[in-house]
Fold this sequence. Notes:
Blueprint: H1 3-6, E1 12-13, H2 23-31, E2 39-43, H3 51-62, E3 65-68, H4 77-94, E4 102-104, E5 119-124, E6 129-135, E7 141-144, E8 152-155, E9 162-166, E10 169-173, E11 179-184
Parallel strand pairs: 1-2, 2-3
Antiparallel strand pairs: 4-5, 5-6, 6-11, 7-10, 8-11, 9-10
Amino acid sequence: MDYAMLSRLQVQSMTDQEDYLKLPAILVGASAAVLPEQLAIWSYPLANADADQASFNMVTAMMCRIHQSGRLDLLSPEASAQVANGIRIYKEILRKRIPAAVPFYPFGTSDVTNREIPVVLGMRSAEQTLLAVWRIDGPAIVRVPMVSPNAELVYPANLGINIASANGALTIGFPRPHMACLVSV
Length: 185
């Protein structure tokens, strides 16, 4: 993974890691080394994935370039809807902004071995600032130290994730472990 190769190629595949819970931390590190528009991330919800797992996979892939895979034909209707909605939001909103986006790290770089600490990756462009926030096994409430009176949950919209902005922090409430979301700030 170097720019001698990437100056001649359009895409760098991030990893072949199959444990989707490790991918957010890997993404944070990779985003510091490869331009977002060249960083391709596999989203492959497993055949038995529920809506939470499918949306977790999608949030990870939506921050750069989606490589969609997996047994999509075997997903439940709820999980399939999460994949379809994630791809729609990516195409309509995110894809055109990624080439001008600059990554930033509100929690610093991530530790792939510590599943208690949430993972946060920001992407800032002239039009929008997005945060991807992942709750692996840690606390249900994630506080990101940034002021955003216009914070809005972009994806997923229907899994019970709540956001609020007060006292100098953006607060994201996840009802269950292994969830992720995209927030416009």
